[in-house]
Amino acid sequence: MLHVLIHLDRGGGPMTSDVISAMLSTNPVVVRRTMAGLRDRGYVLSGKGHGGGWSLARALSDITLFDVWDAIGRPELFCLVASNDHANCLVEIAVNEALETARHQAEALLLARFAAIRLSDIADDFERKMAALGLDPAAPFPAA
């Protein structure tokens, strides 16, 4: 969704779920479901009919990585799964506790960093990379 939001900002107009789904190689229904969370939080708008589609409701400088993560349902950040093969084994219990503590600490650090990164920071970095390649960052760019 970060990719999509920056494209919405730099793309020059609304994008339909079909266009976004092609860009992400997914189904338009998945796009609509995911974008709905962003719409419900006031980050995007959806327009119907000719010329409709998804557009930004806020400036990228007003949206953080944390905001997007939160709006799309707070997906798991790490896939560490505790073992429950030997639930009474004290070694397994100690390992699981250590993994859970480390995971919670890592998540807290990552989420704090997410809250400090604005989408405009990412978009600005994109523009610097384009300029370094001698490309016009203001020129329209393809959706994929």
From TrEMBL:
An MF annotation (GO) of this entry: DNA binding
InterPro entries linked: Tscrpt_reg_Rrf2 (IPR000944), WH-like_DNA-bd_sf (IPR036388), WH_DNA-bd_sf (IPR036390)
Keywords, alphabetical: DNA-binding
Record carries keyword Nuclease: no
TM helices/strands, residue ranges: none
Lineage: superkingdom: Bacteria
Pfam families: Rrf2 (PF02082)
Protein name, as recorded: DNA-binding IscR family transcriptional regulator
